[in-house]
């Protein structure tokens, strides 16, 4: 099976930002995506930049093809300028986290469409449980033969991204003990979770053919890996991050993902053998970051070297400074350290819960306020 990767001539950038929709009074999830998309679409030059997802409680804001992190954030700000007034009229707020702390899965309505209906028909209880939101970041790559080496190497920094963005500690009214419960929930779907570490594009093509022939997928877009190639767009799509509550943190995370991919691709183009981890270490690192967040001790290499994720992150930010300067995102990348200093979203949600004697409505309020100020 041949899959053509439509290579990008530049390290372009695209961001997809998912939000849950919550009722302004009860703070429960509300199935209002269709109404919001209709109301906001009148104010958008390109209504396709706002669309629904699997469940009617979710909307996704999508940038165009951007050159820099700053351009992508400006694009998202323009979308918010249209969406937030429409949400006000509907008495709905945008909730930017990886999971809602108390919503009931059986109260959520499925978005119409064969693709979603078939997914739920196949996955049943696990599919209906997907009250989760994330951020997806596309980075353009110029050469098909480097896609899989860059993707495999990128997994070395999977836990860094997971820990920084972790925002789903409370599920169905209970603190799960995890920083990111979303990370472990999402991998229950077929083809979701960690990618295979293929050395060549031909190996990926062979895998995709097997999935299609055996009926696991109907289209390669249904390969739902945490990091995956997007052949039609000519990008690597990073889907590691939990939902994000505010533009400042989003810009820093996008800058980190942009710099990581471009740095790895530049090194591969120069003939360097990129660093990779054994799959069992990648799997363990994902679990550790989901469980412990920024307190995770992660495995760095095949020699079993371990280090606190925030210590390794500090060195990574220094190493990526030249790449950030090249890409015009020096300020945004530096903001990653602010997330560590302030505490990730899972820290902040737990703090509110502790200060309010477990009031989960207050937790939702706090997440909403981070978007609107």
Assembly of the depicted chains: single chain
Helix residue percentage: 40-55%
Q: List the helices and strands in order.
A: EHEEHEHHEHHEEHHEEHHEEHHHHHH
- How far apart the termini lie comes to 50 Å
Largest sheet: 7 strands, antiparallel
Overall geometry comes to globular
How much of the sequence lies in strands comes to 5-15%
Low-confidence stretches: none
How would you characterize the overall build of this protein?
The protein has 373 residues and is an alpha+beta fold. 46% of the residues lie in helices and 13% in strands. The chain contains 16 helices and eleven strands. The chain has helices at 33-41, 69-90, 114-123, 125-128, 147-154, 158-165, 181-186, 201-213, 247-269, 279-292, 309-319, 321-327, 330-334, 336-342, 345-355, 360-372, and strands at 13-23, 50-52, 58-62, 92-95, 135-140, 170-171, 174-175, 227-230, 235-238, 297-299, 306-308. The strands form three sheets. Strands 1, 2, 3, 4, 5, 8 and 9 form a seven-stranded antiparallel beta sheet that branches. Helix 1 (33-41) crosses helix 2 (69-90), helix 5 crosses helix 9 (247-269) and helix 6 runs parallel beside helix 10. It starts with 12 loop residues before the first strand and ends with a helix. 45% of the residues are buried.
